[in-house]
Amino acid sequence: MLTTTIYKKNIHDLDEYKFKIIKDSKNIKLGKKVIKGMYNNYKLKTVTLIERETCPADCIHWGDCYGNNMPFAHRISHENQNLLQKRIYNELLNSTNQLLLIRLHVLGDFFNVKYVKFWSIMLNTFKNIAIYGYTANNINSKIDLSRDIAKEIIKLNYSKHSHIRFSNDLNNPFSANSFDIVKPVKGKSILCPVQENKTANCGTCGLCWNQKSQSIIFKTH
Fold first, then answer.
1. Domain ranges of the chain
2. Sheet of 175-178, strand order
3. Is 18 helix (H, G, I), strand (E, B) or coil?
């Protein structure tokens, strides 16, 4: 069974990594800037960890993670959590003149409760940032750590600037669900407009952070 990325050469330890952890978005589907909704004019940024190593083992996409198709992505090691948080904090401290919407995480997931609490502190500290993303952690998981992390993410989402959807939590309207297991239901869920080529990218869409009452359905990458 795989326990980490299949691209081990692209795992970077922080004590040797000379680039930023919070990167400018270069993904065509993500976009570079938000142009509508509550974060209009925010610059899109990304954080990428290591798929599987930071993810709950009951993620339904454990085997076919879309990280399998991202051989060139820089995966940041989370093993030295204090250094990871220090690097992120310093980068945010040097970006207070910008409005930032940070995608957590392009690859990887929230790996412990302390890390979730760290982002809560960042949102309270830096009023120019917001975060969004998806987590495979779930309050109904059989894995204790996954349940604990999910409970803390629920608290994190109390912030008006945190928008972390729960993957494949079919009873939660603020979720992101796989087309493989559930189909869109009018008034309750929406098929990702970017995947349907109805809008250019996430920055021109914004449903994942603007739409609270309906789940978003994604086709498998």
1. 8-218
2. 23-24, 43-47, 100-104, 129-135, 162-167, 175-178, 215-218, 189-191
3. coil
**Complete DSSP assignment for 168-191:** T-TT-SSEEEETTT----TTTEEE
Which has the closest alpha carbon to 194: 27, 70, 37, 51?
27
**221: pLDDT confidence band, cut at 50, 70 and 90?**
low
Mean pLDDT of 44-49: 98
Spatial separation of the C-alpha atoms in residues 79 and 65, rounded to whole Å: 21
Report the distance separating Cα 217 and Cα 178, nearest Å. 6
Contact predicate 210/202, CB 8 Å: no
Q: Is 68 left (phi over 0), alpha (psi -120 to 50) or beta?
A: alpha
Q: Residue 187 has what pLDDT?
A: 85
Rounded CA separation 141/147 (Å): 6
Terminal Cα distance for the chain, rounded? 21
